[in-house]
Amino acid sequence: MSSYADRLKALREQLQRDKLDGFVVPLTDEHMSEYVGSYAQRLAWLTGFEGSAGSAVVLPEQAAIFVDGRYTLQVRQQVSADQWSYQSVPETSTTQWLEEHAPQGARIGYDPWLHTRDWVKKAKEALATRGAELVAVDRNPIDEIWKDRPEASKAHLVVQAEQHTGKSGAEKRTEIGDWLAAHHADAAVLSALDSIAWAFNIRGQDVSRTPVALAYALVNADGTADLFVAGEKIGPEVRQHLGNGVRLHERAAFESALGDLKGKTVVVDPERAVAAIFEALEKAGAKVLARRDPTILPKAIKNQAEIAGQKSAQTRDGAVISKFLRWVDEEAPKGDVDELKASDHLEALRRENPELRDLSFDSISGAGPNGAIVHYRSSEKTNRKLEQGTLYLIDSGGQYVDGTTDITRTVPIGEPTAEMKDRFTRVLQGHIAIATAVFPKGTRGSQLDSFARRPLWEAGLDYAHGTGHGVGSFLSVHEGPQRISPVGSSQSGGDEPLQPGMILSNEPGYYKTGEYGIRIENLVLVVERQIEGAEKDMLGFETLTFAPIDRRLVDVDMLTPEELVWLNCYHAHVMAKIGPTLSGADLDWLQRACAPLGD
Description:
The protein has 599 residues and is of the alpha+beta class. It is built from 19 helices and 28 strands. The strands form eight sheets. It has a six-stranded mixed β-sheet. It is globular. It starts with a helix and ends in a 6-residue tail after the last helix.
């Protein structure tokens, strides 16, 4: 089908054949992943939307697409208003919209392998108010009409060495088994791909930018496990690594294996496991214990080997960013650099490192007004030159074998305006407020979020995304459960208490629609803080990312003496960390970029 209008029409015709009056299309896969393999990108195929969070509802006469504040501009660029109405989450959810728009008595289809049990419950309740019914489909109707749908990846799994993980897979699974025994459970379902990668110390290439493999797992109270993965993906090294304590099965056998758990108490994560898993276990006669995946917190709290690897990866990546920023400084004024050329150059620099395995996400390379699109992705259609008098925002990262990086820098092309400097300095002040925060043990990220926003709020400004997300160890660049975000935001998770060893991003921003975007992002590590006379255990952040913050955009007069000291000390640390890895013109540029500001 040549156009998205054709695809929408074809889906409606398929729904008629399936005796359905509507269908809900989430942007996820059967593992509730944020980033999905090409075979599962149904929302993008149907609508053209390429963001990492969204969903759609198709009815006979109406269709709506749902995105949060990060994508309000992007969705309007990529999805036709002629066929789709734009809905903002959390103000309007798919279930709320169905309650208002579903035809009376309608049959609305959904794929039970793509939705959580909680969503199904809310959707059924919403549709009941209209005498409508939510219908689970045996086969996704989009798959019926997507004739050239890609196959799932057949890439081999690889072993993640213990020098990087700090703990063997057998040790991790024994600890999961002990946790299960303490909760009087027989087994836990692991369906999140990064949970499986962590628990078995394996990595894969099945999802772009995230080193995971398509698999399911059951971990048992005795520490043994059943791993469900396509046999063609398992080589001798991985088989030996897994050992006798891991029984291997075809991925396609997972659903039937759930049917064999009659009488067993099985832990299933209601946020990360799809409704179909709950239904299969309940049908089999298993007792389902709805608890958070037992790998989530141990995965988030990095051990010393993981922290050391992350620090090495950050230093390596900071040197790359420094080289790239020097290149932008020299080449952009010539008028021949555009967004795609810039991001390609940055990727080429990263790929000079033998430790790099992939990018950690598609680089956000936004010139001028495109920088105001929070999760912008440049294309031949939207590509812009880095023009004089504008700002350029580059948000990028690498998947190194010892760590995952994520960094954003904003630079002026030519002379910045007074407004640009004011906004940038306010974002910098918010960034410093997080970097220097000291807080009692038990503090949640939601309690810190306003620290970053205050300088913007004082000018009547804000940004429509969280201030920080968790980051994995050569795993997902967006990793829970910790984050720094407002309570009740569409990017949930800000209520997780922060603990030493957790890694988060620190990335306040400001976006002026149609003109420019600003974001300053470093990764930080939660650490203990020793304070003389303290009556509570206190925590703070250690900054992990080292690359210059553009001095030309800083209004020094707006900074407090303490903020100025922080910035100058940060640049001194940048010189100490990455200066020894550079030479010649790169080192000369870095010395200028890190020179102290102020008197």
